[in-house]
Design a protein that fits this description.
MAP kinase phosphatase activity, protein serine/threonine phosphatase activity, RNA polymerase II-specific DNA-binding transcription factor binding, alpha/beta, globular, six-stranded mixed beta sheet, 13% strand, nucleus, hydrolase
């Protein structure tokens, strides 16, 4: 998968992130740019999405002995309901998590609603301002932010609030510093409207941040978060991101048991 060129802002961590019209909880951070309410003329689109189409991720089924470890009792439509047997979700190895991710057959659109008001998608839908308006998107979290492509300026005049993270889709990239800021931004967005979380393809970087949000804000174990998203979209976070999510899962379990 493609990677993005990294950069650094003065006085900021090695992997900078950029935002506009952020909620007050993080508006004081460095690297904030405001653009949604700017009086400058609305910029013309620099990215042209391809004709809408569907594509499928086809993966082989895992053995029944592996599948028997899980209970897929959720519905196809997003639900905020708390699952009664949440504590019984097993802690899986990286290998087992990868098998879970590759189990089944799921179609991906340019954007899929994986939680009420939360859309997970690709860069094509992020560049389609007409479709964003149709979906009533009010916030965008871009996990593949680049100074050469899009950014807060692209959404001037739309009222969309933007948060960009310059993340590489590489197992060596540390996404964990952005788990809580991203979860806060998504939470704030859902209180105010609808959000699109995207990267280049919408299956690794952005999916990792959505999983972290469900784990942090909705107290889901990692396995449940994966199953929740996979009910609506195929995702394949890279192995490094999975390790970081496992570490988050362990930390949250310890915190809940304290």
């Amino acid at each position: 998968m493609e990677t993005q060129q990294s950069g650094c802002l003065s006085g900021f961590p090695p992997q900078p992130w950029h935002c506009k019209l952020l909620p007050s909880s993080i508006a004081s951070w460095k690297g904030v740019t405001v653009g949604g309410s700017s009086s400058r003329r609305d910029l013309q689109a620099t990215l042209r999405p391809s004709r809408p189409h569907r594509y499928a991720l086809w993966v082989s089924a895992a053995p029944m002995a592996f599948l028997s470890r899980f209970s897929r009792n959720s519905t196809r439509s997003p639900s905020r309901g708390v699952r009664e047997e949440r504590s019984h979700h097993p802690i899986l190895s990286i290998f087992e998590l990868e098998r879970l991710l590759y189990t089944g057959k799921t179609a991906c659109n340019h954007a899929d609603e994986v939680w009420p008001g939360l859309y997970l998608g690709d860069q094509d839908i992020a560049a389609n301002r007409r479709e964003l308006a149709h979906l009533r998107i009010t916030h965008i979290l871009n996990a593949s932010h680049s100074k050469w492509r899009g950014g807060a300026e692209y959404y001037e005049g739309t009222g969309i609030r933007y948060l960009g993270i310059e993340a590489h889709d590489s197992p060596s990239f540390d996404m964990s510093p952005y788990f809580y800021p991203a979860a806060d931004f998504i939470h704030q967005a859902l209180n105010e409207g609808r959000i699109l979380v995207h990267c280049a393809v919408g299956v690794s970087r952005s999916a990792t941040l959505v999983l972290a949000y469900l784990m942090i804000r909705h107290h889901m174990p990692l396995v449940e978060a994966i199953k929740t998203v996979k009910d609506h979209r195929g995702i394949i976070p890279n192995r490094g991101f999975l390790r970081q999510l496992v570490a988050l899962d362990n930390a949250l379990r310890l915190k809940r048991s304290a």
